Amino acid sequence: MIVKIDFNSDEAIYLQLRNQIIVGIATEQIKEGDSLPSVRQLAENIGINMHTVNKAYSVLRQEGFVQVDRRRGAFISLNADKYEAIRELQEELQVLIAKSICKNISCEEIHQLIDQLYQSFLGCGS
């Protein structure tokens, strides 16, 4: 998986890294059990601070995408608590839908966009 950081983005670097790893899992570029680079190695490869990578890994661990083992390092381990994931998704979608309503985006347009994005992750997009 190739990580691309936009240093001009308003989004924090650790969140960009977190999001790219999650997308990598969803698109199966990274699979359950795969090791992630060490904090030091990834920081050097991208050209960012080690604390930034560590923060991204910590967030991924808290969210149930990664486990960290002192001997093995960080690796993909999907802790699937579906009900918790749905609750978190609902919280995130609430704000996104509110923003969409403020921008006059219809319910049908939101559904269409979600369907397209979901299908693109499954490799069956149109």
UniProtKB/TrEMBL annotation:
On the tree of life, the source organism's domain of life is Bacteria
Q: Which Pfam families match?
A: GntR (PF00392)
- Tell me the ranges covered by the HTH gntR-type domain, including all copies: 11-79
Entries under InterPro entries matching the protein: Tscrpt_reg_HTH_GntR (IPR000524), WH-like_DNA-bd_sf (IPR036388), WH_DNA-bd_sf (IPR036390)
Q: Which UniProt keywords apply?
A: DNA-binding, Transcription, Transcription regulation
* GO-annotated molecular function: DNA binding; DNA-binding transcription factor activity
Regions annotated as coiled coil? none
Protein name according to UniProt: DNA-binding transcriptional regulator YhcF (GntR family)
Annotated source species:
Cuneatibacter caecimuris
